[in-house]
Write a structure and sequence with these properties.
Number of domains: 1
Shape: globular
Radius of gyration: 23 Å
Number of strands: 0
CATH topology: Sodium/glucose cotransporter
CATH superfamily: Sodium/glucose cotransporter
Distance between the termini: 64 Å
Helix content: 55-70%
Largest sheet: none
CATH architecture: Up-down Bundle
Structural class: mainly alpha
CATH class: Mainly Alpha
Length: about 500
């Protein structure tokens, strides 16, 4: 092992690092202003004119789905519970086939703005509006978790700021992101996502290289024996443990459900001109996601080796295996040279800002299309539609910032936090799309009943320990999505056989 450098103090966060972060934020605002001058209508604002390049949109899809939660949560999960989570890499080909060849062709046949307009064609307005409300709730909770995690878990500890500053910093991050999203629309969001993806990758590579070098080489990051606290590497079925099967099914279900029902994903497919280009978007996103996932797995092992060998580098109250989510921010503070700290912090902020900007733009599309023009029945001219979308973006940004201050009261590490809170609606939302696309006899009543059933199952599993629900309190959070999705689909299919749609039901053909 190489001789480690002398541990710098928190004062090593220099003006150079701060300047890098400030320049990054100003650059994002500049991109928003640039694209705002080239905005013609709401279709440009929400879908980029439906002619965007598949590579950049694919990078945007990756950046939108990856957040600071994942960037910190993946290494923390590996440090605390072991590398079982890495087994989900074998799911990528399955996801590509299912989404690329079964879902995307059905999605791309509809020239819609909101994904939930598709539901109305077969199930009617009630299903469309329920789905849009579920999506807004899902992404609002998710964005709040992302903002909170970035500020509380990264910015505050790295810059040695008081915890009381968290709400104000959430506001700053939210305002900057919302401003460039409101001004530039999807084109600005995609362009900033591309830049943020590159910065994020740079941060991961730099961290891994520096840790490996100081430990004596890449081989030094791997433990010589299986730590006692790690979950046993099990392939078989088990309700309560972290198993290969649990991670695999959770990942497959999450990706398929998200790509097939989430406005953030469908919006990006619709931003490209053809089914082929939409499939390229998915391929690009999955490839980058797999690359970053493996990199962050290595970073997790590197951090574990780094702090196990140097326990004195831990802050008071921190432990390698009890507080793994804090190790990466701690390393950024004490282990990186001047300038690189600013780059890595910008990378972590990039993960959050790409998620927030994409979420704000997507929810704005749903609110302005499904709520304002649908539920409220407003007849808006093209210029008014653009204004409505921008106002919706601004309002959603304010709501997310406010809600992020309450995320500290939810228990669990960041990976579990994402699954328990942000994915609560993922299964039920996809159930509605599954009923629309693959159950010919489905009606609005049976589809909604199936979605509500899935929602009840997901909530019961997610909060079973707090609610002391018999038989469910020992189920791992990994099974929340697969179980709720399966039960919802089965219930919907059975109900559709017993209570089929009336012959006058609207066809799902465009």
């Amino acid at each position: 092992m190489n001789d480690l450098v002398t541990l710098p103090s928190l004062a090593s966060i220099t003006s150079i690092d701060v300047s890098i972060v400030v320049v990054y934020l100003l650059a994002m605002l500049g991109i928003g202003i640039y694209y705002s001058l080239r905005m013609n209508n709401s279709d440009d604002y929400l879908l980029g004119g439906r002619r965007m390049a598949s590579t950049s949109v694919g990078m945007s899809l990756f950046a939108s789905m990856l957040s600071t939660i994942s960037f910190l949560g993946w290494p923390g999960e590996i440090i605390r519970h072991g590398p079982t989570i890495l087994s989900q890499v074998i799911a990528y080909p399955i996801v590509f086939v299912v989404v690329g060849w079964f879902l995307i062709p059905r999605i791309m046949r509809y020239p819609v703005t909101s994904a939930y307009e598709i539901l109305e064609l077969k199930l009617g307005k009630s299903a469309r509006y329920l789905a849009s409300c579920m999506f807004v709730l899902l992404r609002t909770l998710w964005m709040a978790v992302v903002v909170y995690a970035t500020i509380h878990k990264v910015i505050v500890p790295v810059f040695d700021l008081p915890a009381s500053s968290t709400p104000w910093l959430c506001a700053v991050l939210g305002v900057v992101t919302v401003v460039y999203s409101v001004l530039g629309g999807l084109r600005a969001v995609v362009m900033t996502d591309v830049i943020q993806t590159l910065i994020l990758l740079m941060g991961a590579v730099v961290s891994l290289v520096i840790i490996s070098y100081n430990l004596g080489g890449l081989s030094e990051i791997f433990p010589t024996s299986w730590p006692d606290h790690w979950s046993v590497f099990r392939v078989n079925f088990h309700w309560s443990d972290r198993t290969v099967l649990g991670f695999l099914l959770n990942f497959i279900c999450w990706y398929i459900a998200t790509m097939g029902s989430d406005q953030m994903a469908i919006q990006r497919f619709l931003a490209t001109p053809t089914e082929v280009t939409a499939r390229r978007v998915l391929r690009t996103s999955l490839c980058i996601d797999g690359l970053v996932f493996c990199f962050m797995g290595l970073v997790g092992l590197a951090l574990m080796s780094w702090f196990t060998s140097n326990p004195s580098w831990l802050a008071d109250g921190e432990s390698v295996f009890e507080t793994p989510d804090r190790l990466f921010p701690r390393f950024i503070t004490i282990g990186l040279p001047v300038g690189l700290t600013g780059i890595v912090v910008a990378g972590l902020m990039s993960a959050a800002m790409s998620s927030l900007s994409s979420g704000v733009n997507s929810t704005a599309a749903v609110i302005s299309t499904d709520w304002m023009q649908g539920i409220l029945g407003w007849k808006l001219a093209p210029t008014q539609q653009l204004v409505a979308a921008r106002v919706s973006s601004a309002v959603m940004g304010a709501v997310v910032v406010l809600l992020s201050t309450f995320m500290q009261y939810i228990e669990g590490n960041l990976f579990e936090l994402t699954v328990r809170v942000a994915n609560l609606m993922t299964g039920p939302l996809f159930v509605l799309f599954f009923m629309t696309m693959f159950v010919p006899r489905a009606s609005a009543a049976t589809a909604i009943a199936a979605a509500l059933t899935a929602m009840g199952v997901a909530a019961s599993i997610s909060f079973s320990q707090k609610l002391d629900i018999p038989l469910l309190e020992d189920i791992s959070f990994l099974w929340m999505l697969p179980v709720s999705l399966a039960i919802g689909i089965v219930v919907g299919a059975v109900l559709s056989l017993v209570f089929p749609a009336l012959p006058t039901a609207v066809s799902d053909e465009p």
